[in-house]
Amino acid sequence: MTKRTEWKVVTHIPWFNHSMRFDTEDEARTWVLNVIGPNPKPGTVTVEEVEAK
Question: pTM of the full predicted structure?
Answer without folding.
Answer: 0.78
